[in-house]
Amino acid sequence: MSESTLAATARAESVPVGELAPNPSSARAHMPDAKSRSGKQGSNTVAHIVLGIGGLVMVSPLLYQIVMSLSTNTEVQSTPPTLWPSVIQWHNFADVFGSMNFGSQLWVTVAITVLRVIGQVLLCSMAGYAFARMRFRFKGPLLALVLSIIMVPSQLFLIPQYQIIQNLGWLNSIAGIVAPGIFSAFGLFLMRQFFMGLPDELEDAARLDGANPFQVFFRVMLPLAANGLWALVVITVLWSWNDLLWPLVVTSTANAAPLSVGLSNLQGEHSNNYPILMAASLMAMAPILIMFLLMQKRVMAGIGRSGLK
Amino acid sequence: MKAPVLTAGTETSRDHATKAPLPSAARRKGKSKSDGFWPWLFVVPTVVGIGVFYLWPMVQTFYYSFTKWGVFGGAKFIGLDNYTRMLADSSIPQSILNTLIYTAIVLLGIPAAVILASLIERPGMRFASLYRTLYFIPYVTMPAAVGIVWRLIYNGDFGPINWFLSLFGIHGPYWTSTPGFALLAVATVGLWMSLGFNLLIISAGLREIPRELFEAAEMDGASRIRQFFSITVPLLTPSIFFVTIVTVISGFQLFDLLYVMMGKANLAMPQTQSLVYIFYNQAFLQNDKGYAAAIGILILAIIALLTAFQFRIQKRWVNYV
User: Fold this and answer.
1) Are B196 and B287 found together in one domain?
2) ipTM of the complex
3) Chain B contact for A286, CB < 8 A?
4) Most buried of A76, A122, B184, B276, CB within 10 angstroms?
């Protein structure tokens, strides 16, 4: 199945925010109007100035962070602020590993992200598929029950979830951080909407060929839902990597905590070694930033399609 | 005579397109009422997981909100005591006010996003995708990590903000530890983080507006400013409505930035804290889980009320084409 067909099926389905058309300029370039408008260079200059200054302001905290992560502590605390360190202090990045449990926290963060992505992709797509395209008793009420939790804030689950993890003896473990988050009513809803928009013919053909529902799902339907799966992967990665409240609640030792918790607890102990703090927070954000820069279109389309983080 | 036929025609074809599974479903219906045990293999893991980790906990939280927790565990039913205690607790209205102020400041990102989107999405605009990337970057950063950076930027002694203010002879405050300023500082970061998301949604809405409308307006001699207020803004109201709902809901979920930028020991925390912070503090630092559960119910009630209210008044200002 080609990419364009997939995109077409995705578009045919009425997703609220919809296909975010990452390259609208290509579509619009054919319009005769485009030329006449861009001819008005004068007014676009103002737009570029506004957007350029605004964009610079948006990334300036990160530029500041990069410079400070390469400076000495004296340079960080000097006024006027250091624009560039006199000697680049690369060792700050290595020092992070010695001054906090960065290695183990990075491992926890990677592990919870990967496990949640695998869990959600598998579970949400299977359940979403069944709710979209199969028939069984209590389907309607069951779906309504599951979806009822989507709008409920997480504080209503947190205390009992904590008790469950505590009773399982999973506090301070990767399993404990991951457990509730591999189930997602929102992910189920997202995948159900996607499967509802897929055509019937291939499914019917596979069934006539004697494939059982598992084979139909994994070989035929799941590959067709690639765009929906990407959206699910993007939001799950972002949310797992950056999540703070839940891991904060179920971890109490520095070794078992993910980076988000580790960084937020640094404020007391290492609050005076700013270059190390900047280097640590930069390394904690870097994987997601790199992922975003490499696959901007997928990330933006995924977030746009899902509407929420 | 022709019109109704046409409408009917499009209706059926649309029906066919959206409800594609119908024919085969109807065919199978002849044989049996369901697809047997197979669907259960697909849904049972998720349904059980959501039942155990979300649905039942929700019921438990409702029950806990009527209980008092002993030091060594065990919950005692105390009726509405937690709720009457909440009414007398002055930190609750304070935190609701804090959350409203925070949300109001973050909402300023929406008009900003409308203006920025209308600039970026101009036909033939160069560097459009570069701008989209720049504005979106803060949205994907980890709040815990970026909160540390902002704390340094807001530093009262050597932070760049106070240095900048000093150029104009202004002696800047200790932003994150002064009541009032702390909330402003946190909300500014909230605005910074959410702007990219607002821009993404509003840009998508903008691309759906037919170009012909702008062309016609231009031929009639309408200025760009006039086009912005008479075409862009009214036709964007559904997108604006959506990001408003999202901003308000996530505003009432404020926790990460507050926790990281201020810290548990911050003396300005009582005047700055959000409802979710009080919830966290009561449930996991004070171990008063019954009271925390009642605060959780309050958060749910406020979000539900605000969202319902917004849906109610939407027909006064949202134009659906």
Assistant:
1) yes
2) 0.86
3) no
4) B276
